[in-house]
Design a protein that fits this description.
The structure is a single chain. The chain has 164 residues and is of the alpha+beta class. It has a single domain, classed as Electron Transport, Fmn-binding Protein, Chain A (Pnp Oxidase, Chain A). The protein contains 4 helices and 12 strands, in the order αβββββαβααββββββ. The strands form 3 sheets. Strands 3-2-6-9-10-5-4 form a 7-stranded antiparallel β-sheet. It has a 3-stranded antiparallel β-sheet with strand order 1-11-12, with no helix packed on it. Strands 7-8 form a two-stranded antiparallel ribbon. It binds flavin mononucleotide. Flavin mononucleotide binds at residues 19, 34-38, 52-54, 57-59, 86-88, 152.
């Protein structure tokens, strides 16, 4: 029997991940964000990571246009930001109420404050696959702030249990 999309989603949802927000500059100088958990490490030499982005996402167009983008690994207290950046419409007023703070890296890549890790990335290669593109990026710099990461599992945001 062929696998349905629902079965596929439920099965893949058992793979617990962290949660990232991709941050990229929009034409107007504003910053667009997209919640993504398809993030993975690719290569150590050169340092490369990947994220898979739906062809229909605004981020798909923006990353290919701008080339520079941030990957921010969310902290456990940033669940509301994960929800906000998974919405198709982003209202700057809502963002400011939620405490979204964006800061530019030394070369102008937008990065999200409060993330446990911020990666300043540059698009290196795009691989088309099905309805998503795999964006492979060189990592220009890393800010490792520490703290506990937000987790996504079985369609829900979760926190790591307290250590003994
Ligand atoms: C936890 C979570 C993880 C997600 N991961 C991805 C992802 O890896 N790739 C993707 O294209 N969309 C992903 N999405 C969906 C996008 O965040 C959402 O469709 C977004 O509105 C599309 O981006 P846009 O604002 O650039 O159009 C995820 C959503 C959630 C809630």
């Amino acid at each position: 029997m062929p696998v349905t999309t629902g079965e596929f989603r439920r099965a893949l949802g058992q793979f617990a991940t962290g949660v990232t927000v991709i941050t990229v500059t929009r034409e107007s100088g504003l910053v667009h964000g997209m919640t993504a958990n398809s993030f993975a490490s690719v290569s150590l030499d050169p340092l490369q990571v990947l994220v898979c982005v739906d062809h229909r996402a605004q981020t798909h167009y923006l990353v290919q246009e701008q080339k520079l983008f941030g990957i921010n690994i969310l902290a456990e207290n940033q669940e509301e930001l994960a929800r906000y950046f998974a919405r198709p419409e982003q209202d700057p007023e809502d963002a400011s109420q939620l405490g979204v703070r964006i800061r530019a890296s030394d070369r102008g890549t937008p990065l999200l404050d409060g993330a446990v890790v911020q990666l300043d990335c540059q698009l290196a290669r795009v691989v088309q696959s099905g309805d998503h593109s795999i964006f492979i990026a060189d990592v220009h710099s890393i800010e490792l702030h520490g703290g506990r990461p937000l987790v996504f599992h079985a369609g829900q945001y979760k926190r790591l249990p307290d250590e003994e």
